[in-house]
Amino acid sequence: xxxxxxxxxxxxxxxxxxxxxxxxxxxxxxxxxxxxxxxxxxxxxxxxxxxxxxxxxxxxxxxxxxxxxxxxxxxxxxxxxxxxxxxxxxxxxxxxxxxxxxxxxxxxxxxxxxxxxxxxxxxxxxxxxxxxxxxxxxxxxxxxxxxxxxxxxxxxxxxxxxxxxxxxxxxxxxxxxxxxxxxxxxxxxxxxxxxxxxxxxxxxxxxxxxxxxxxxxxxxxxxxxxxxxxxxxxxxxxxxxxxxxxxxxxxxxxxxxxxxxxxxxxxxxxxxxxxxxxxxxxxxxxxxxxxxxxxxxxxxxxxxxxxxxxxxxxxxxxxxxxxxxxxxxxxxxxxxxxxxxxxxxxxxxxxxxxxxxxxxxxxxxxxxxxxxxxxxxxxxxxxxxxxxxxxxxxxxxxxxxxxxxxxxxxxxxxxxxxxxxxxxxxxxxxxxxxxxxxxxxxxxxxxxxxxxxxxxxxxxxxxxxxxxxxxxxxxxxxxxxxxxxxxxxxxxxxxxxxxxxxxxxxxxxxxxxxxxxxxxxxxxxxxxxxxxxxxxxxxxxxxxxxxxxxxxxxxxxxxxxxxxxxxxxxxxxxxxxxxxxxxxxxxxxxxxxxxxxxxxxxxxxxxxxxxxxxxxxxxxxxxxxxxxxxxxxxxxxxxxxxxxxxxxxxxxxxxxxxxxxxxxxxxxx
Length: 669
What we know:
GO terms for molecular function: peptidase activity. The protein has 21 helices and 20 strands.
């Protein structure tokens, strides 16, 4: 019997699951190499990041009502991506398993490679072999169909070298030596700083979903502790940059800063248990912390950078930020699976561990305490307290009890009657909460806007609660509101005039509009009470604008054919921007100071304002307030008639100015 006859004799070989998985990974790497140049991976990563962010930004507003709120679409997108990857991996595994059973026979025939198992024989033509790769003690025979045959070389002894040489001759391919699958290494206890640097570099690679980055991980309990300390220091430094240099350490913020540590360890352990190997807990934990450190740096850099960008970039910023969060979650899952060397059927454990044990509890944890807080200045605090006391001293003066009725009577006496045949706006602006000046500034600005731009001079009134105006402006109470509406009803032409009621204050989940001026307690204003006052005053056409938290609850009770209702938020949402130092709330600025300076149409202004509010909220990281509107079919043509009259008046004023301009030009010279 010749040597060729010996080498052509079928050889029985056994393969293990781990050996077959080496083939699966090798086939996957070859498929990726065939897909294009390495530089394309960077652009693919960025593109996926943008797509994930865009999907989150788009669907979060549409799916808020679903269980899980705005995080539901994020979880669905991540799960969908994982399921698709799992399906692709399973398909590849099934293809390998179909070609490569546990036990088989292989023979080198002159015209083909013969593989027999379970009484079935497959003949692989030599031209179908694309590459021969040796990884450790395994030979991988790569086929043009991206399938791979795994041959344990130990089963070919003692004729291994001769068998490989004949295989090369028949296939026309040379055996190349490939790299073994990247696996974490045990850390060198004598060089902790070098290992720490290697783990940080691995974190960058793992975030970019680089398979080779796994080999840079240096695993030990000491390295895990060092990585946790580095991440904690980065969080502290990022908090310090956000709060400012004039700050002091807040020990109560430690609970928020380290809340994720036990969750991370639990996620790594749960994933290892899914693989039935507790020894994989430590590599998984090191990988998760390494990725998390890089994510922490990018998140703080993004937050600090976005704060310096204009509001015009707010929506893009939100998409980028949440896109990165989605990518970070996916990268954490992949890093955990690779560090623990999980088989495809075990990787769902990593998915559930990261989403269910590491990510979800942190979203439910509402304590956002910072490790740094502004430095407490006792002198400034005392001065602020004295100013607050002085602020409210005027409210409690005895003279106010007599001044207020006279102020309201005088203001109501100045309300001019409507002009017959001229559709007009009457305006009542109400600032409810007396402890923040933003509501005072807002009602004054809105009153000025309607007087100057909407021809409401002599037909507007301001009711406001503020300690600085108790001796100059009528206070805002249900009683004052009822009297005012009654007078407006008497002065308006019911069939052609519209009353604009602008209410700005705080709101409650029970849909109560705050009318408060310490130390007085005024009656509560609910949408039902407001509607009753309007009906009693005989006011037919109404445009009601409510800027307050949970103000969407005012829409159903107030809506009707003769009524336009606009609110700053949904019935179950906060509105934003009501700080003491602000000139406008978010909704007030967008609607009055921006939109209604460009148009006379309330519905168009509302649409423009809603977009602007959403952009500002996204830039600030607030939950979308989602302003609401209900336009009655009967009031719409009346508002259109007023809009057209104002447009005609504005055009006439412009033409008069253009005619007068040439006569004035010589005087200016």
